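Hi D.,

Good news: the full-assembly prediction came through. Inputs first.
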Amino acid sequence: MIGQTETLRETEQPDVAPPAPERRRGPEEPETNVKEEIRPIVRYRGITKSFGSHQVLDRIDLDIRPGEKVALIGPSGSGKTTLARLLMTLEEPTSGTIEVDGEQLWHMERKGRLVPADEKHLHRVRGKIGMVFQHFNLFPHMNILRNVTEAMVLVQRMPKEEAEARALAMLERVGLQERTKHYPAQLSGGQKQRVAIARALVMQPNIMLFDEVTSALDPELVGEVLDVIKNVAAEGEMAMMLITHEMDFARDIADRVLFTDGGRIVEQGTPEQIFENPRSERLQSFLTRFRGRRADDAGTSAGSMTAAGRE
Amino acid sequence: MWDWSYAWSIVPELIKVVPITLIATFGGFAVACLLGLPIALARRARSRWISWPVTWVAEFIRSTPLLIQLIVLFYALPNYGIVLSPMTAGILGLGIHYSTYLAEVYRGGIESVPKGQWEASRALNLTKAQTWLRVVLPQSVPPTIPVMGNYLIVMFKETPTLSAITLVELLTTAKAIGSHSFRYVEAITLVGVIFLLLSYPSGLLVRRLELHLKRRERSVEAK
Ligand SMILES: Nc1ncnc2c1ncn2[C@@H]1O[C@H](COP(=O)(O)OP(=O)(O)OP(=O)(O)O)[C@@H](O)[C@H]1O
Ligand SMILES: [Mg+2]
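Then the structure:
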């Protein structure tokens, strides 16, 4: 679907361990690509972000491989959203670099030097990234179909008929083919979020960011949205960064789980490693606290996992 | 004191100038609407070199009387070789003066669009221009419509000020009639009645529109 053949091979590989330490290098060091290694779709290098004097991200290094599904968990305020927003170009890094598909995102080369990217450069690279927000952010003055076609027509200059055909196909995939003429306000939260997912998917990004896309939903609507995401993930071609408090979901879907705390990636590994054998004390206490809370409100999203997606 | 038959006899003469008053009102309103938007955008501009001067000039226009601005346009500009007809000066004066008010209305409308709309537009890779035209403005205009309607009525009621620059509108005509017959009461009262007859229903219309928009918004927001 994305026409990126090398990504397909990659997703089949069972090895999803974190990048080995010797692969870490500073942003200025030349890339010595001796070993045949698949180029990451996203590469954060030394990313720091401060709001005023408040440092939110602290020298983050992170590679995401094409097609890889990365779940981000961690306490509130640990910088998960900020990490995603830097990639979506909604927030500018204080220092460090982000590469997307081998190309600098926030910088561009001018006479052999890296200079801050201009809007044109950002526009080009940003096309490879998509995002779904916690609060949907659908366009309330457009019906569902237009919400999905608008960017295809405006950004990709696709003829209206073709855009509509694609939008309809995508809306069918998320189970909303009967709602195309409705307006966002006429939909339930779960339906809105599925439209938002369809709207981002039709742009065929190489990596899609999901920022707590179910936390604004009534518990009974969480399952239908998670199902849709699982279906999309099962296709495998698109990398995903999933910020979530749904630990079961993270475990199901993720190739790799990152635990962030205090602006650092404190621990990462396969879902088994992270959830069964947490090494750091901070992750252990986070999971304990989390399980305690889950027990309190008796299974927020369980049960509804299978029902939805096709109404 | 009040002479009914005399009053009736001058009604046609007064009615004849109602169109002039309306042209000045709608002309001024159109200018205000068009000019208000760039002012609103400029005041929001990131560069202080744009936002500060525009803010300052707009505040200046808003805090000085319309009458003085009209006199400048009509009596002072000719000294610089710019001669305007009473109607042109009136439309420009009304329009410029109220554009600073409408700019504030627009600003409120624009700021009422949630941040998430800008972010979603960015995530979908829309350009700045596309975001403004397709996402932000279509959402900021509807809530401002009732306020705009009210300003239209306010501007209508402001047209007697244009008598100061010799525009033959309702008040000028009434004064002329009065000076002919030495009877001012009927003429001036009738002018008041005409304003009432035109503004009051318009006010009701605006309120109906407002309720309609609110109801639509609510029905759209419900569920
Ligand atoms: N625009 C901003 N201005 C100032 N501070 C900000 C801004 N955005 C985020 N922050 C701060 O940065 C820190 C990290 O925020 P972030 O939203 O990335 O955390 P998070 O891990 O996503 O948390 P949560 O689980 O609550 O969503 C928080 O302390 C937050 O208050
Ligand atoms: Mg967050």
